[in-house]
Every structure is written in structure tokens, then in C-alpha cells.
Amino acid sequence: TITMITPMQIRMARAGLNISIQKLQNLSGINATTISYIENEKRSPLYRTMSEIQDALEKQGVVFIENGVQI
């Protein structure tokens, strides 16, 4: 795994899992608007926020690799 995920990897992981931003909000506890801003690179997220999103996606089976994801 990698240390810090990217907005692109979040989008890729959601697409691979076929989950909405709302579902990711439910899984991670991070507000859907915040997730959208992060995915669209309109906000520089806190490390903790990215870590919580990463943890939630990994619990769904996502493996983050350099420049991508495996599901």
C-alpha cells in the first residue's frame, strides 16, 4: 500500500466498487460535500480526512497501489 491516497484514487475506488459519494460518506463519516471537493481537487484535505476515506475504502476491499487501485 501507499502512504497518502490521491483524489483520483478515491474516484477510481468508488467507480470500482460502484458506490456513490453518499455511500462513501456513510462508510467513512466524512461529509459528502467534502469528499466531492477532494475528488475534484477543490480543497486540500487534512491527512486525517484522507486516512479515514482510505480506511473506509480498504474495508470494502480496495487496495491502493502507486497511481491506482486494485479491487
Please describe what this structure looks like:
- The structure is a single chain.
- By secondary structure, this protein is mainly α.
- 56% of the residues lie in helices and 8% in strands.
- The protein contains four helices and two strands, in the order H-H-H-H-E-E.
- The chain has a two-stranded antiparallel sheet with strand order 1-2.
- The longest helix has 13 residues.
- The chain is globular.
- The model has no long low-confidence stretch (mean pLDDT 92).
Give a summary of the structure in a few sentences.
The chain is mostly helical. It has helices spanning about 5-15, 20-30, 30-40, 45-60; strands spanning about 65, 70.
Structural class: mainly alpha
> How do the helices and strands follow one another from N- to C-terminus?
HHHHEE
Number of strands: 2
Quote the beta fraction: 5-15%
Number of separate helices: 4
Radius of gyration: 11 Å
Point out poorly predicted stretches: none
Widest β-sheet, arrangement of strands? 1-2
Q: Fraction of residues in helices? A: 55-70%
Largest sheet: 2 strands, antiparallel
Mean pLDDT: 92
Give the distance, in angstroms, between the N- and C-terminal Cα atoms: 13 Å
What general form does the structure show? globular
Which characteristics define this entry?
71 residues; mainly alpha; two-stranded antiparallel sheet; 4 helices; globular
Write the layout of secondary structure elements.
Layout: H1 7-17, H2 21-28, H3 32-39, H4 47-59, E1 63-65, E2 68-70
Antiparallel strand pairs: 1-2
